[in-house]
Design goal:
Blueprint: H1 3-17, H2 20-25, H3 35-38, E1 58-62, E2 71-78, H4 80-83, H5 89-103, H6 107-117, E3 122-129, E4 141-144, E5 156-164, E6 182-185
Antiparallel strand pairs: 1-2, 1-6, 2-3, 4-5, 5-6
Helix pairs in contact: 1-6
Length: 186
């Protein structure tokens, strides 16, 4: 059995073991110390996060947008709160982006998977205006607030473990404006 299937099965058992009343009464508060997860993130060529504290681990999933728009909006789900004490966090971090991408065309299955993993808490949204970009996927991205305009005490964002987002090899047969889905962890 594939490790992702085992983890999903174990997570399903964990969720089902909790009573529905108990889970409904729980107040959601994102944890504020995720530094243990920082060491579990996939290796990259980005500048290391020296002196920074990991505040959030978010799973970004493209929302369904109108095909005639050039704005891509992404829903950001808090996955760090659930992964913080999860013994399988290293493996989940490695497979959750591709799994979410593969389920993105089946919203009911995607919602079910997010719920089973405990990732149903929407933390926010972000969007890119793609009018001037080439559509090339950037698997690893480091964003720094150099002007002090970000809110919530966040001044550095890493995008890691990107799945999808690559432009097609040819645009033949595509509509003038089309969406290339991707998922990533932030």
């Amino acid at each position: 059995m594939h490790i992702a299937a085992i983890i999903t099965l174990l997570s399903t058992v964990r969720v089902l073991a909790r009573s529905s009343n108990e889970s409904q009464k729980e107040a959601w508060v994102p944890v504020d110390d995720l530094n243990k997860l920082a060491n579990l993130m996939p290796a990259s060529k980005l500048r290391p996060a020296v002196g920074l504290n990991l505040k959030y681990v978010l799973l970004g999933i493209d929302e369904n947008v109108a095909p005639d728009t050039t704005k891509a909006t992404t829903e950001l789900y808090d996955i760090g709160t659930c992964l913080r004490e999860n013994g399988f966090a290293k493996w989940i971090i490695g497979f959750i982006s591709p799994l979410a991408l593969s389920l993105s065309t089946r919203p009911a299955d995607l919602d079910r998977m997010l719920h089973v993993q405990g990732f149903q808490r929407l933390a926010g949204h972000h969007f890119f205006d793609l009018d001037t970009l080439t559509g090339e996927n950037i698997k690893w991205l480091l964003l720094k607030d150099l002007q002090g305009i970000l809110r919530g005490g966040i001044n550095t964002v890493y995008r890691v473990a990107t799945a999808g987002g690559n432009k097609p090899t040819t645009c033949k047969g595509q509509k003038p404006n089309f969406v290339v889905d991707y998922t990533a962890q932030y």
